Amino acid sequence: MPYSAFILIDDEVETHIQEIYAQGQKMGRDDHSFSKLGDSLIANPYFLRIFDQMDRNLGWYNLGEYIYLQDVIDYYHGSFDRHGAAVRVGQHAWSVFDPMWANKDLCNPGEAPLPCEIRLHNPSIMLILLGTNDNVPRHYFEKHYEKIIQYLIEQGIVPILFTKADRHEGEDGHNNEAIRSLAKTYHLPLVEFDLLANTLPNRGLGPDNTHLRVARSHDFTRPDTFQYGTSVHNLATLIMLERVNKILNQHQ
Q1: What CATH number should be reported for the domain holding residue 200?
Q2: Residues 46, 50, 53, 58: what is their CA dihedral angle, to the nearest 10 degrees?
């Protein structure tokens, strides 16, 4: 499958994220850091953490023909292993601004998860992986997801959006449709993981049909690696980060 099928960035997206990034640099955002915003899909050791090699129990990786991605791994070193204050099991689009969902060991009194993570890590990019727990009408999910996007843009942080593999909100996948619509409206990068999931056994999901099937190693020289949800998810994320990083830094 060509990158252009699941890494969605057009000319308008390029222009807009450069504008967001430029504003963020004026605000002092850390060019070498990204943060994660999401639920149990990424609140586990298998989303990106292996690329910082901080926990040998997570296995190892071999990029193979994707060796060019090592540069972006080096560029954002320290962010891959980071769990962060904006990732929590059971998270919803609405709960990221609710102080009741904040990690009390990390966040100030009255501080919500998303503002807390921005204060702590000062990222220039935010990966948004939400929707699995939002089993609500599309308009409700979309309203709260849009609020997240608007807030990040105001903060000078480039949002990277992801569709998801599960169908918990219904077979129509209306949460994914909402994410696609908002990506177009706000001219933001979109990882079409919903599309990639169609190429995987059971859409890349494990027995619970919620979490991705875990690959204990990420050896991208082996064909079977591409049968696991976690390895394909991580590779797609790296490809998007590499593309976005080039766009943001092309004039430096």
Answers
A1: 3.40.50.1110
A2: 50
